[in-house]
Amino acid sequence: MTNLALPSEPEVRVAGLPGETAVISLLGEHDIATAWEVRNVIACALKQGTHPVVDLSETEFIDSTIIHVLFESKQLAQEHGRRVSLQLPADARVRRALEITGMLDVLPVYGTRAEAIDAVRQPRDNNTERRERWRSSWL
Predict the structure, then answer these.
(1) How many CA atoms lie within 13 A of 104 on its CB side?
(2) What is the DSSP letter of 4?
(3) What are the structural domains, with CATH classification, of the chain?
């Protein structure tokens, strides 16, 4: 008899940090059933004036709805004058899905939480903002 591991229950954890940053961790498997919650948590963080870091290091699975939510989060962040980044270690289970869909070229990706937090806290110059808007308009 083989031992099959049951998928872990999806969970969204939010940790507010000093300096207008929130870490949103997606644990377990996320798909259309959790897309609304993930979208809402990111949107709320942005409306509260924080820069979200989406931690995918313990995410076991994402489907296209979650990938779309991540894409939307960048656009929403720009509308609020904020930045969003992903914490995605090289060995993360969901990395391949993000590679195939091109999301690694759309959102800034960092291997560690510290790098992702530092990136969203860095002041941007006007040229960087213009490049990001131009790039997003072509996607």
Answers:
(1) 14
(2) P
(3) 11-137 (3.30.750.24)
Given a contact cutoff of 8 angstroms between Cβ atoms, the answer to whether 34 and 63 are in contact is no
User: Cα 3 to chain center, whole Å?
Assistant: 32
- Beta carbons within 8 Å of 128's beta carbon, 6+ residues apart: none
Report how far residue 52's alpha carbon sits from residue 86's, in angstroms, rounded to the nearest whole number: 9
C-beta separation of 46 from 14 below 8 A: no
- Tell me the two tokens of residue 134: 């131009």
| Buried residues in 72-87 as b, exposed as e (16+ CB within 10 A) | ebbebbbebebbbbbb
Neighbours of 35 (CB within 10 A): 18
For residue range 54-70, list pLDDT tens digits in order.
999 999 999 999 999 99
Answer for the pair 53, 87: CB distance below 8 angstroms, yes or no: yes
Q: Can you tell me whether residue 18 is helix, strand or coil?
A: coil
DSSP assignment letter at 31? S
Q: What is the mean pLDDT of residues 33-51?
A: 95
What is d(CA 54, CA 25) in angstroms, rounded to the nearest whole number? 6
- The answer, as to whether pTM is greater than 0.70, is yes
